[in-house]
Amino acid sequence: MTKLRFTLLASVLLAVLLASMTFGVMVGSVDITPSIIWEVLFTKMGLSAEATASKAQSIIIWEIRLPRIILAAIVGAALAISGAAIQALVRNPIADPYILGVSSGASVGATLVILLGAFSFLGTYALSVAAFFGAILAVVIVFLLARVNGRTSVIRLLLAGIAISMVFSAITNFMLMTSKQQGGIQAVIHWTLGSLAGAKWSTIGLPFFTFLLIFILLLFNYRQLNALLLGEELATTLGINLDRFRIFIILAVSLLTGVVVASSGSIGFVGLIVPHVVRMMVGSNYKLVLPISALMGAVFLVWADMAARVAIAPEEMPIGIVTAVCGGPFFIWMLRRRRYSFGDGE
Questions:
Q1: Is the pLDDT of residue 346 over 50?
Q2: How many other C-beta atoms lie within 10 A of the C-beta of residue 327?
Q3: What are the DSSP calls for 147-171, one per residue?
Q4: Model pTM?
């Protein structure tokens, strides 16, 4: 893809993302026009002194809907680039960030908080902190199991991830089975299916800056990611320390996914599907794959969140159900109808 076509594609996706986020703020029980949304936004940013929006509209836009939409975009972008990086790491097109046990580890942490009241001294941050530490603990165990004689094997990494995911899922199921708190059980199930309902301005900062940091680090290392797709021997001949680079990818993706899961719950399919779509559009060069994946992942999750809010209104459907319902058939359709390159093959 030429630089001009990439710039045009990125510009179009950015415009689609802004339009999608504006439409996402409009969706709800209170009708709000796009002009009111941007007026409130400019006023809050100090770019406009006059505001015709009512106080109620201003609160709904600024305090409730806008943080949620922004968090959806951040989570979508983070999961998409994490999926792209993991697929390069394991050279497997069906891998995603959760294959390292991040989701199941976070679920154990969240279940401990909801059912047993763990970390209660942290107040409203208890759930996020416990989910984050659960995710990191699972990844550390997977990494230690996969590392033998000072080397990390991709096969051992995959197998250890599957095994630890099953163990942590069993722990979560055991706590659910032995609990008598019906409300708590429903809350755990709802959290494991993903939700952005708890988004606040105070909860956006950490996911945003973590995403920004990991995105920049991955983009600086796009040549190494491209080399991974070509195979271990060729990557080694290019002077890449494979073991050290794999540790870097595992830590970076685990940190980003752990922070995101802690704020939104477990949302599947984004990190699996989006990189595939992007490779069909721009090829396998990670210099192009990473930024386009971030934009497309953000657009996808903003629309998924809107669908979750309107599907069974006034109730809210877990966003993980929406991503699975949309993503599964779309993924199968892509595999059947299109061809794409993954590394040096098709």
A1: no
A2: 18
A3: EETTEE-HHHHHHHHHHHHHHHHHH
A4: 0.87
